[in-house]
Amino acid sequence: MNISRRRFFGVAGAMISSAAVGNAKNACAGRQPKAPPNPYGCVVDLTACVGCRTCEQACNRVNHLPPPEERLDDRTVLDHKRRPSTSAFTVINRYYSGRLDAQNQLVPTYVKVQCMHCQDPACASACITGALHKKENGAVNYDKSRCVGCRYCLVACPFQIPAYEYFDPLTPRVRKCTFCYDRIRQDEKPGCAAACPMEAITFGHRQTLLEVTHRKIAANPVRYLNKVYGEFEVGGTSWMYISREPFEKLGFLTLPHYPMPHLTETIQHGIFAYMWAPITLFAILAGVMWKINPQQMNHAPGFQAQEDPI
Amino acid sequence: MSSHDHPKPAPLEIKFWTPGVLVLFAVMLIGFCFIIARYLGGLAVVTNLDNQHPWGLWIGIDVATGVALAAGGFTTAAIAHVFGRHQYEAVTRPALLTATLGYTFVAIGLAIDVGRSWALPKPLLFWQGNSVLFEVAMCVVVYTHVLYIEFVPIVVERFRGRVNLPGPFSLVNDRIERLLTLADGILDKTMWVFIIAGVVLSCMHQSGLGSLMLIAPTKLHPLWYTPILPLLFLTSAIAAGYPMVVFETTVATASFKRADEMEVLAPLTGVTKYLLGIYITLKIGDMIFRETYVYLFDGSIEGRSFIVEMLAMIIPWFMLMSKRLRAKRHTLFVACTTIVLGIALNRCNVFLIGFNPPYAVNSYFPSISEMAITACLLCSITFFYRLAVTYLPVLSAPSLASLEKES
Ligand code: SF4
Ligand code: SF4
Ligand code: SF4
């Protein structure tokens, strides 16, 4: 990563101005990952979830979402995989990892899907106006009054979470789990976590959660894989998962451990630190023009100026 | 400078409405109906976009390709005005016109594509310096204005001393006249700032467009995901500039029955052979360095699309190498058109074909109505191009009829 980045700046810098390469390297020596110091988080224990979809109901209620297409107590919806949508910020999917129980039946694993509230979110870095923003308490918050509807956040999100109101002609919104921003601001549990009858969703400060969870895994090595999904993925996420089945078999993506905005922000801030690149290029071109084509600086180009030198 | 005896640009003064123009107009009207549908029913009724494929044909063609192919504007300005190669002055005005129209319709295309068209100016209020899209948007906004400023002298040249509004408007004739003179006076001395600013802004957002997809390393196919993608976008846009000028000039001179301008176009593409060479070298070098050639022949649609894209650059590059082929109007046109299509395919590869979102249920293919709106925008550009060259001094090629008379 580091090497290829250097290489890139070597090339780009040399092309724009060989004199300024050193400058470029200093300006982009490294983008520090961003994250609020003490955010909230949730850990979903996939070994505890029974797929009752109570969290979906709770989410629908606390967020005042429209009545769902599929009844919230209908378990046949689990027969196909769903994604969070404009009317459901969280969904439960059922996976079979291949493990059999004592009666030779496949053991299901239920996976709750919602926005991961990344520590260093791609959606927020991409957003053209800052309508998406990572709050101190960990929530990645959406402000519709800033949104222009470019949908770059949908392009950027590595978990493919945001949903868009394509049917609204003039005021469509980006829709995704809010981490129950208004509730956690008052240190209350999010709706889904509060409603879960199995207590599969643990809410707390992310750092504390991680410590507790690692102790729990160490105490139950048969029940849990030694991995917390979301601890390192894309630089860490506020929502995390523990499981007995390998995460790849449960629809989880294998993602890099660096924050997604790393490369784009390094390039942007490398080129635009103090606007050095545009200014240098302007100066070089002006120098060239002054040297080769000085009459240009006195007269607009065109056939008139050539005809009648004023 | 006085040595070149190329005629001055002049309005064509031709009949505007021809059967061809009527066809253009019909396509524009059809597309316009779909645009109305979009504003009545939302993006969902006219597009095949979904949550996994938020960007479609409009971003790939109208915006990304549109911006790349408008590069003729700043590349000709650079060679003729900055580097003082005055033999190319003849193509700067048509290239400037194409760029101005191109960017105008990029803006219109974007306004249709974003969900909240009315909120499009919001980035001017809420600055978000981390966002690549913010940088691209700002550069495009400023550059479009620069293009219009660069265009002012053409309008002044046409109307100065000739402002003659009828009836009640005649009261302001004098004022407009003075305004034109003032604009001319100011711009005559300051135009060089705008010309250079135009080149700088272009370099910034052409490369910025390439950075856009770098935020999605897990979604863009490795054949295209490279940290030098911004550099590839910049070099390819620069390389596409002159071929696009050849393409549009040849189409224009052929349809308006003017001289073919080969004495300008052939040497211009002599420069392209180096620019394109740089791009091809970077592209192949990048592929070898990152060892992505393993995907070339894996039978995937991405692999094939990449091969086609590369061939559309390499074959015309060899054609341009030959002075003989470059001097012939037909082969030059074929080579340049291939490059133009190759660039379009490259942009579509990056934004559409190479974009593999996780959890996608459907694969994206543009709907008929999306294509109709894209066609509408392309025809509008052609329509307004014709309108402009008919009434403004843009084209300078002598008409074939006048040439015959001379000989
Ligand atoms: S999961 Fe996606 S939408 Fe949620 S914070 Fe992360 S990048 Fe943003
Ligand atoms: S759609 Fe809205 S929230 Fe998403 S990136 Fe664009 S402006 Fe930001
Ligand atoms: S945190 Fe709130 S918005 Fe997010 S899934 Fe739970 S209930 Fe829904």
Give the CA-CA distance, first to last residue of chain A: 58 Å
Oligomer: heterodimer
Largest sheet of chain A: 3 strands, mixed
Under the CATH scheme, which class of chain B? Mainly Alpha
**Which term fits the overall shape of chain A?**
elongated
Order of helices and strands of chain B: HHHHHHHHHHHHHHH
Number of strands of chain B: 0
The averaged pLDDT of chain B comes out at: 92
CATH class value of the largest domain in chain A? Alpha Beta
Note the beta-strand portion of chain B: under 5%
Question: Helical content of chain B, roughly?
Answer: 55-70%
Describe the structure.
- The complex is a heterodimer of chains A (310) and B (407).
- Chain A folds into two domains: 2-31 and 264-307, no CATH class; 40-119 and 175-260, 2-Layer Sandwich (Alpha-Beta Plaits).
- Chain A is of the alpha+beta class.
- In chain A, 32% of the residues lie in helices and 14% in strands.
- A three-stranded mixed beta sheet of chain A has the order 8-1-9. Chain A has a two-stranded antiparallel ribbon with strand order 2-3.
- Chain A is elongated.
- Chain B is 70% helix and 0% strand.
- Chain B contains 15 helices and no strands.
- Chain B has one domain (48-366): Formate dehydrogenase/DMSO reductase domain (Formate dehydrogenase/DMSO reductase fold), CATH 1.20.1630.
- The model of chain B has no long low-confidence stretch (mean pLDDT 92).
- Chain B has 407 residues and is an all-alpha fold.
- Chain B has helices spanning 19-41, 43-46, 57-69, 72-82, 89-113, 122-125, 132-159, 173-211, 229-255, 262-289, 301-321, 323-327, 329-353, 368-391, 400-406.
- The radius of gyration of chain B is 22 Å and the shape is globular.
- Classes of the chains: A alpha+beta (310), B mainly alpha (407).
- At the A-B interface, helix 1, helix 4, helix 5, strand 6 and helix 9 of A face helix 1, helix 2, helix 4, helix 5 and helix 6 of B.
- The structure holds iron/sulfur cluster (3 copies).
